[in-house]
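Board work, copied verbatim: Citrate lyase alpha chain
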Amino acid sequence: MRNILGREIPEYIQGYGEVEPFKGAFASLGQVVKKPVKLESAVPKQEKLLDSIRDALQKCNIKDGMTVSFHHHLRNGDYVLNMVLEEISKMGLKDIKVAASSIFPIHEPLVEYIKTGVVTGIYANYISGPVAEAISRGQLKNPAIMHTHGGRARAIEAGDVEIDIAFIAAPTCDTYGNINGVEGKSACGALGYAVPDAQYAEKTVAITDNLIPYPACPIEISQEYVDYVVEVESIGDIKGIVSGTTKITKDPVGLRIAKMTSELIQISGLLKDGFSFQTGAGGTSLAVAAYVKELMQKNNVKGSFAAGGITGYMVEMFEEGLFDALFDVQCFDLKAVKSYRDNKKHQKMSASMYGNPHNKGAVVNNLDVMILGATEIDVDFNVNVTTGSNGMIMGGSGGHSDTAAGAKLAIVVTQLIKGRLPIVVDRVTTVTTPGETIDVLVTERGIAINPSRKDLIQKLEKTNLPIMSIEALKNMAEEMTGVPEKVELYDEVVAVIEYRDGTVIDVVRKIKD
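↓ predict structure ↓
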């Protein structure tokens, strides 16, 4: 069958089940049901502290076929996923499903567990490195299921993803299970992605390298959801939190894109008191923030909030009084960790509060402007940030689809050509974010506005900005690179891409090496 975007999707996928096709970004909104939270009551004087991860696995009655979950606030410095799966493997368990909010290159040991059948399923919002390559080559028994950040929270709360044991990498934890991310040698800041896991898992285990006497203060994840506590030597390397660029680009092309984007934002009329903003941690995205900062200072604009994974640059804008508050689901660098610890207006948000479409209001719904990246974008404004043009998994939505749906102005910034390949194509290899939620594409060669945004077109067509159709940008790129050959893939589905509402927006098929 084909979904509303014309993507060919099997009606049934082995290892996934029956498919509900994507019907539109807002088609599923309405009354929803969340599954009940089941808790096992603790009795007075009951001890939660255990000696080892194996003890915790045994206390939780782990069995073949169970689902274990992890969060990624330590990003490419996380040790906990590897430690737990090593113990699971030693216990001889099989057919384990891993529900990790994101998977990074440091999780390479997972590849061997996939090959030996210890792990047969993966849920994640973002996957990069050796695990992504293994999945792309069809080595995982069942298709990986890829969510958005808000979609993962929705799936857990709805019972679509049922977690048997949640393992929380806890930078600080007391003996009764109160957790925070702002103290200890592994302080990583806000723990927003771990919140739905802690609340909805059958069992929750805190793994910490900073065990302190009761009570831990402040408390981010409460003792009421934690069954057991295990102390280990180290839960991770905080240097791995900064994986990828978090510095403003110095590339003239990137700066040109950023300059035009900031001008576009000003002309849109959104850059006024109460302005709300989110941008990624890439060099061009941060350059947009730098130009927006100049405009806010010049025009004496006081913003309401900035949101997302917070970087040190956004902290600087906040500390200079350009925003009244920060909403933080995870910290992208150590400056953000310090700010979150020290400033009460630098607030945490759970993954559900951040982007879940099936609650009474996500933070993304209050965004004025969101700056997004793209691996590919097609003439219908559909964006791919999940696979490369060769079909290899190299990322995932994260908050891409959530913020695009919520923001008043969702802007994709990218160079027109990368690696000698055009970024604008007839049809993206994989749809991550539907074109109906993308408003503008800004490249160094020109700006394309989604035809549905007639209001923006009217505001911008009389300016000096190089406004053109997205087809013109595609033709311009192809004149420089030639028309790329269509990638050939096997029919086998290796990953299912769920939109934030749980419908299937696309699938990833096995690559041909």
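The domain at 47-241 is CATH 3.40.1080.10 (Glutaconate Coenzyme A-transferase).
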